[in-house]
Write a structure and sequence with these properties.
It is a single chain. This protein has about 280 residues and is an alpha/beta fold. The chain has a 6-stranded mixed β-sheet, sandwiched between helices. A 3-stranded parallel β-sheet has the order 4-6-8. Strand 1 and strand 2 form a beta hairpin. The protein is globular, with a radius of gyration of 20 Å. Keywords: Acetylation, Fatty acid metabolism, Isomerase, Lipid metabolism, Peroxisome.
Length: about 280
């Protein structure tokens, strides 16, 4: 690949059988892939690099070991500066806290902001931060053994890095979201599929990853101009009115439709051959 992908807490691979696909794996299996500050900062770097890498057109995110991620490493967080006693007045302490939360939120949003489609393949425990992370992705799939939960109320706080903002828009069911967020109860693969949180359920971790890679490969075979534009417009339209979305699409495509990819795709269909597209 054109860039160096060497990270401490994440592995990035490029399977030869899946051109233009990157496989990112959370790699802290001895701690159930629980996140601490250095990990979420590193994850932002991973997705920013992949976003700009013209050799990458789709990304699969999974977890090593027995869990996708058990969420926040509470022990590490409790010994951090935010939970240390200090003599700051409440306003100044709140300012520090707000900045820290905003930084954490931005690291999760890096997944959503990534220009390339991100498919999350979840297995085992997928708790707390796992929900924040997966709702920032584009497609979610899971294994039959997965155990989901929005766990934040169990540790005395409201989920603050994406779940409460994104999950209702993913599933379109505020009643169900309030139930799982207010109770922190565990739910499984079949319930997640029924409410639309995940797209599909697979037999085990490896089958889930394989399914994710196949989906990514299919996406990567399309025009990168079309795929990246589609992700951008869908995300924009989710947060704006229909009329705003139509206007934004018109502005976007006034530039994007000038690509040679349109004629390449149309001709390949007429000639019954697989099209190839230049890097973007």
């Amino acid at each position: 690949m054109s860039q160096n992908y060497s990270f401490q807490h994440f592995t990035v691979q490029f399977p030869a059988e899946y051109p233009y696909v990157a496989h990112v794996e959370i790699n802290r299996p001895d701690k159930m892939n629980a996140f601490f500050e250095a990990m979420w900062l590193e994850m932002k770097q991973v997705f920013e690099k992949l976003s700009e890498d013209s050799n990458v057109r789709a990304i699969v995110l999974s977890g090593a070991g027995k869990a996708f991620t058990a969420g926040l490493d509470v022990k590490a967080a409790s010994s951090g500066p935010l939970f240390s006693e200090n003599d700051l007045d409440p306003a100044r302490a709140a300012t520090i806290m707000r900045r820290h939360i905003a930084e954490f939120q931005d690291c999760i949003t890096a997944v959503e902001r990534c220009e390339k489609p991100v498919i999350v393949a979840m297995h085992g425990f997928a708790l707390g931060l796992a929900i924040d992370l997966s709702t920032a992705a584009d497609i979610r799939i899971c294994s039959r053994d997965v155990k989901f939960a929005v766990k934040e109320v169990d540790i005395g706080l409201a989920a603050d890095i994406g779940t409460l903002s994104r999950l209702p828009k993913v599933v379109g069911n505020y009643g169900w979201v309030k139930e799982i967020a207010l109770t922190a109860r565990v739910f499984g693969a079949e319930e997640a599929l029924r409410v639309g949180f995940v797209n599909s359920v697979h037999e085990d971790r490896q089958a889930t990853i394989n399914a994710g890679l196949k989906l990514a490969s299919l996406t990567a075979s399309k025009s990168p101009v079309a795929v990246q534009g589609t992700k951008e417009i869908l995300n924009w339209s989710r947060d704006h009115s229909v009329q705003d979305g139509l206007r934004y699409t018109g502005v976007w495509n006034s530039a994007a439709l000038q690509t040679k990819d349109v004629s390449a795709a149309l001709l390949s269909g007429l000639q019954k051959r697989t099209p190839t597209f230049e890097k973007l």
